Amino acid sequence: MTTFLSPETETFITHPHPPESVNCDVLVVGASPSGIAAATSSAKAGAEVILLDKEMGESFDHPANTFFDGMFFRAGLAVERDYVLHDLDGMHIVSPGGCVLDIPAPGRFIDRGRFDALYLERAERAGAELLRGEAKSAPLGGSGRRVRTDLGEIEARVVIDASGVDGLIARKEGLSPLRHPEDVAWAAEAVVELPGLGEERFFEYFVGSISPGWKATFSPGGGDSATLGVFVRGHGRDVRPFLDRFIEMFKKYKSADYDVDDMRIVSVNRGGDAIATLPGEIVSDSLMATGAAAGMSGMAYAMRAGTIAGEVAAGAVVSENVSKKGLLPYIRRWNREFGLEYRMGRASLETLRKMSDDEIDRLAAGLAKTDLDFSGSFFRKGLSSGIALARSRPRTIPTLIRSFAEG
Ligand SMILES: Cc1cc2nc3c(=O)[nH]c(=O)nc-3n(C[C@H](O)[C@H](O)[C@H](O)COP(=O)(O)OP(=O)(O)OC[C@H]3O[C@@H](n4cnc5c(N)ncnc54)[C@H](O)[C@@H]3O)c2cc1C
Predict the structure, then answer these.
(1) 277 CB neighbour count, 10 Å cutoff
(2) Are 199 and 220 in contact (CB under 8 A)?
């Protein structure tokens, strides 16, 4: 049997398992944001879909729990109150020397369990079968791929690998789904408690050597709860020492406002974020990769990518062409919607990675005096900030701000 948490009743719902048939049109590996979206769009388009996750029915305790509304809208999603824990007014980007850029951009801290349960329920309502199980490999065979799982073999016309940044299935089948796998940002994020800390209204992103290659983050989650995280590129997977340093720095930074010695670390999550990796080879015969597995980072954008992948997979099944060629419209559609934005995001983070703390301080001081126009669409905000950045430091950072907001 498989179970998941219903957002309406907060009780676990049980579903029959395994399915009557172990053949399907589309098998999605990973009930991640991208995988749930892929299963939903594929089922809505008429495909027989199985959504498989090794943790289906557990609490889905994924660390990603914040987003900006602009990115949600850009991905065609609506913000729903059911899962929002805390509303935020925007972000502060803090330079190493303490210069603060204040950027209005509404955002949310969410209950990730409720978020996943809501979208899982929609996937199921659309007709997808939810299964708890682990995929091991997906070699070509029959009229598609024969997916080896701990439940037995599932035959699928198309397999969508939405299994996260390690993209195990796509890699095992010979794809290199990340163009720059060495640029995964490895993260460690602590859930902390301190009276009143979670009530703050701005995310804070600290840049520079405190978290090389991207950012250290403070995300207020409402009440006494918040997360403190580091996302580091180029220093291996174990970034806990960066987190420990950041927590000490953060305590000093907040010491005038809180009794910081009372801060308690509740838990520490780890993982990889594909923010700067860009998609590599993400399509093969009867196989696609999406979301973090394909270098498409961030919950909202991963969901949009999954939606496109699911639609293309279902269309390929109907037109009886599940070859690589039949699945290529996925890449074309994704590139049209997001290609430029992701390439600019990577360029921004590459520039930031090469800057010294002094350079970042000077840039931030220049920007603090510039009259930035952050009104309008999220893309326009990115563009405005890019123009200002380019003015103050030629050849630099077209969409720095957007890159911060992405994960
Ligand atoms: C610490 C941290 C914090 C982050 N915070 C944010 C944030 O606040 N906001 C944001 O937008 N993004 C955030 N991100 C990025 C975000 O997690 C991803 O970009 C987003 O989840 C998209 O990933 P995904 O949906 O493709 O896969 P994931 O969310 O990684 O999910 C992969 C799923 O696949 C399942 N799975 C893996 N292997 C198998 C297998 N072999 N068989 C079956 N199932 C399998 C896993 O159980 C999991 O459920 C964060 C990342 C990290 C590491």
Answers:
(1) 26
(2) yes
292 C-alpha to center of ligand 1: Å?
A: 7
Q: How far is the CA of 406 from the centre of ligand 1 (A)?
A: 13
Calculate how far, in angstroms, residue 138's C-alpha sits from the geometric centre of ligand 1. Answer: 20
At 4-38, the pLDDT tens digits run: 444 444 444 444 455 445 899 999 999 999 999 99
- pTM of the full predicted structure? 0.90
Superfamily of domain 2-60+113-180+276-340: FAD/NAD(P)-binding domain (3.50.50.60)
Distance 269 CA to ligand 1 centre (A): 12
Q: Is the CB of 243 under 6 A from ligand 1?
A: no
- Ligand 1 atom closest to Cα of 297? 19
**pLDDT-derived band at 405, boundaries 50, 70, 90:** low
Mean pLDDT value across residues 159-176: 96
Distance CA 268, CA 288 (A): 32
* Ligand 1 atom index nearest CA of 35: 25
Domain ranges of the chain: 2-60+113-180+276-340, 84-108+181-273, 354-405
Question: Domain 84-108+181-273 carries which CATH code?
Answer: 3.30.9.10
Single-letter code of the amino acid located at 198 = G
What is the Cα–Cα distance from 150 to 144, expressed in whole angstroms?
19
